[in-house]
């Protein structure tokens, strides 16, 4: 039992007053109203609370750009919703359009080989594209198509919250980072998307055409693996 309960109560009240004063100096504006508390717990488009499933539902039978006209199906993305590593390419090709999965053609096989050499399984990373419908004749996605589709890729990133994003090729790198730098100049150099590290490297299709360049992407991925070893669980 306290020696003087009244004195102890007064000291407690003074301590509480000091604490409240300190919190106000830090910017606290009082207890939130119930409606504010509820709003804070609702799914956020930019937060982890927004799930991949929710984003896919939001995308729906998308016709936000002209690429919808020639697609067989939307290629949303594939892999772990808790991946520490995301690979982003430019858009689905013919095989991807048929199967509804990203990177399943020849370029996908090369990506799988790369993952396997790095000791990674496809299921533990996440793979997607800047645009989710196949551009005709495998042409590059156009700026209006990227503008329409990129917000969904960004939501996927926000939902997964990876440690590292690897952008595959010029289109994905320039679109995500909002730059015009050629991939040959920026490849292998760490960039940032918000607080997420980004490693630009060559697209597997390019490496199929120029196999002598493969060692550069291998070097880029070594940097990624070193970063994840220091900062992630991989
Ligand atoms: S590319 Fe993206 S924005 Fe365009 S129709 Fe397909 S899903 Fe929609």
Structure summary, number of beta strands: 6
Tally of individual domains: 2
CATH superfamily of the largest domain: Uracil-DNA glycosylase-like domain
Give the CA-CA distance, first to last residue.
54 Å
The portion of residues assigned to helices is 40-55%
CATH topology of the largest domain: Uracil-DNA Glycosylase, subunit E
Mind telling me the C-alpha Rg? 24 Å
Order of helices and strands: HHHEEHHEHEHHEEHH
Question: Number of helical runs?
Answer: 10
Write the layout of secondary structure elements.
Elements: H1 5-25, H2 34-41, H3 52-59, E1 78-79, E2 85-89, H4 94-99, H5 106-117, E3 126-129, H6 143-160, E4 164-168, H7 170-177, H8 183-186, E5 191-193, E6 196-201, H9 204-209, H10 214-231
Parallel strand pairs: 2-3, 2-4, 4-6
Antiparallel strand pairs: 1-3, 5-6
Bound molecules: iron/sulfur cluster.
Iron/sulfur cluster is lined by residues 59, 62-65, 67-68, 74, 131-133, 145, 148-149.
């Amino acid at each position: 039992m306290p020696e003087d309960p009244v004195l102890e109560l007064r000291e407690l009240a003074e301590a509480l007053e000091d604490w409240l004063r300190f919190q106000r100096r830090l910017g606290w504006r009082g207890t939130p109203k119930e409606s504010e508390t509820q709003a804070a717990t609702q799914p956020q488009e930019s937060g982890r609370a927004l799930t991949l499933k929710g984003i896919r539902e939001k995308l729906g039978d998308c016709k936000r750009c002209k690429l919808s006209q020639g697609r067989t199906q939307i290629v949303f993305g594939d892999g772990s919703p808790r991946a520490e590593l995301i690979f982003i390419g430019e858009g689905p090709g013919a095989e991807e359009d048929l199967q509804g999965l990203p990177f399943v053609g020849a370029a996908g096989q090369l990506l799988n080989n790369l993952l396997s050499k790095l000791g990674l399984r496809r299921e533990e990373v996440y793979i997607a594209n800047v645009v989710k419908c196949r551009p005709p004749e495998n042409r590059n996605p156009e700026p209006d198509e990227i503008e329409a589709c990129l917000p969904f890729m960004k939501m996927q990133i926000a939902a997964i919250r990876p440690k590292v994003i690897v952008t595959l090729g010029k289109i994905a790198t320039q679109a995500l980072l909002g730059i015009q730098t050629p991939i040959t100049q920026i490849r292998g150099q760490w960039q940032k998307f918000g607080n997420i590290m980004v490693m630009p490297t060559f697209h597997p299709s390019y490496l199929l055409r120029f196999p002598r360049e493969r060692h550069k992407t291998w070097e880029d991925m070594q940097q990624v693996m070193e970063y994840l070893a220091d900062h992630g669980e991989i």
